[in-house]
Write a structure and sequence with these properties.
The protein is of the alpha+beta class. Helices cover 16% and strands 41% of the residues.
Length: 520
């Protein structure tokens, strides 16, 4: 540099970085707000404060990193590191918590989805839990629903009677005195037989057909339907049995149609029962058409009759076959029940107290509800294989049980109740023996549900314990009522309009938008 030349200008100083003290103070404020939000959110169970706590914590840690870095790195690098840390922390504190408390969606757990159910629409399933579910819509159309095949539309007129076979393998459709039997699962072509069906035992269909005032009963092998196995004459005057598991007036002498019980239950029975106006009720052999055993009930008595499954016996090596139950009302309303197997008497009850009763024939037992003569208090009495006297459901077996808070349902096999300890408990209807127990969320939980087709559907309210828990969250369980096995469980905040228990530990659950098949 020559003497006298001007000195070079000094290099410009780097732009000053953010004030570290200010950033540190801001980080402390943000982290403090995060802690306060988390504390208040947990105390008041406010989800917005819980989410705000995660966001504030992310922002606070990002600001703290900014204070620690000072001016060591380029501005862009610092911004990227700070923003990345803030996003990662905020996501880690919010996203898992949101996912963990997200309600289940019905369609995700469903094995089949269909249009929602409306009032008056019927849902049926075979008693052994096999085969599809039959849905009869209010306009007369029908659907078969299963996990394997989904939803199948069935062509049917509103006046047609549709039913499943007792084993669930066939669909029976009755139209204008013509019976059509279709095998499920893409088997052989449908078989059409003239007449009205009485029963389907294996491959033998028992039908009744009348022409020119002459009526006949026939047994038809579905594998060779052109030539009946047997044909016998039948009286022109007849009636049908009563639906299983349905409450009916005990002393109602009104005759029921041949298909009334089939239409009500959606199942064609295995045991053919024949009413003769001269003799009374008879059980006939589907293979020969001959009467089996003695007369089941006299023609001139006011009796209810149905073929039901036998009561379950945990000690038996195999389940017994169907039993025919009769319950007859006397002049003063006293009831006498009898159970038959293959036309032979298994047990008979003593007369019940006189009164005004409705009866339900189910699982080899008779449950009567009504008021005893001389009282105004409604009660229940049961006739079963246990003893000849009628007694209250559960007998002495439930006297030592904890106080019941609600009853979800009762049938011939078990009664399902909730108790003061916050449990759902099943007891044998006849003996009161404890069958199984499942917990509820709390003793005060609001419980809704029902028992049907040996399945319990229960919806119990879940307490909000965390701020991100949805409001109105409820636990939906489908339970096999035989052993208490939970076949489906989910937590939902959806509004459920219909809970229909089905055999085999299944249920059809409906909202305003859809219906889904669960369990099994």
């Amino acid at each position: 540099m020559s003497e006298g030349s001007p000195a070079p200008a000094p290099a410009p100083a780097p732009a000053p970085g953010p004030d570290a003290a200010t950033a540190l103070g801001l980080a402390v404020v943000l982290l403090a707000l995060a802690g306060i939000s988390a504390l208040l959110g947990g105390h008041f169970r406010l989800g917005a404060l819980r989410l705000a706590a995660g966001l504030l914590a992310g922002a606070g840690l990002g600001t703290l990193l900014l204070a620690l870095l000072g001016g060591r790195l380029r501005r862009r690098v610092r911004i990227l590191l700070v923003a990345g840390l803030a996003l990662v922390v905020a996501a880690a504190l919010t996203v898992p918590a949101v996912l963990a408390t997200r309600p289940d969606r019905l369609e995700r757990a469903a094995s089949a989805t269909l249009a929602p159910l409306s009032e008056g629409e019927a849902v049926h399933s075979a008693p052994d839990g096999q085969g599809p579910v039959l849905v009869r819509r209010a306009d007369g159309t029908a659907q078969l629903v299963s996990a394997e095949a989904g939803v199948e539309e069935v062509e049917a007129a509103p006046e047609d009677v549709l039913a499943l076979s007792a084993d669930g393998t066939r669909l029976v459709q009755v139209t204008d005195e013509l019976t059509r039997v279709s095998e499920r699962g893409g088997g052989s072509a449908p078989v059409e037989v003239p007449g009205t069906p009485l029963a389907l035992a294996g491959d033998v269909l028992v039908v009744r057909a009348c022409e020119a005032g002459t009526c006949r009963l026939s047994g038809v092998d579905l594998g060779a339907p052109d030539q009946p196995l047997w044909t016998v004459s039948d009286a022109e005057q007849t009636r049908g049995p009563d639906p299983v598991g349905t409450e009916l007036p005990a002393g109602d002498g009104a005759a029921t149609g041949l298909l009334d019980a089939v239409a009500a239950t959606g199942v064609l029975p295995e045991v053919p029962l024949r009413f003769d106006p001269d003799q009374g009720w008879l059980q006939i052999d589907p293979a020969t058409g001959f009467a089996v055993g003695r007369v089941l009930a006299p023609a001139d008595a006011e009796c209810r009759i149905a073929a039901t499954p036998a009561p379950s016996d945990p000690q038996a090596l195999q389940q017994r076959g169907p039993q025919v139950l009769t319950v007859c009302a006397g002049e003063d309303g006293e009831l006498s029940a009898t159970a038959h197997e293959d036309g032979q008497v298994l047990w008979e009850s003593a007369p019940s107290p006189a009164g005004d009763w409705t009866v339900r024939l189910d699982a080899g037992r008779v449950l009567a509800t009504g008021t005893e003569e001389g009282t105004t208090t409604e009660g229940e009495i049961l006739a079963s294989e246990r003893q000849s006297a009628w007694e209250a459901p559960g007998g002495q077996g439930v006297d030592q049980a904890e106080a019941f808070t609600a009853r979800l349902g009762i049938d011939g096999t078990r009664m399902v109740v909730t108790n003061a300890s916050g449990q759902m408990v099943a007891y044998d209807t006849a003996t009161g023996a404890h069958l199984w127990t499942l917990p509820l969320d709390s003793p005060d939980a609001e419980v809704r549900g029902g028992l049907g087709a040996s399945t319990v559907v229960v919806l119990d309210e879940i307490r909000r314990e965390h701020p991100l828990d949805p409001r109105g969250l409820r636990r939906l369980r489908v339970v096999d009522a035989d052993d208490g096995t939970v076949t489906a469980e989910l937590f939902t905040a959806e509004e459920l309009t219909e809970l229909r228990p089905l055999s085999g530990g299944r249920a059809l659950i409906s909202t305003e938008q859809q219906a889904v098949l669960l369990g099994g």
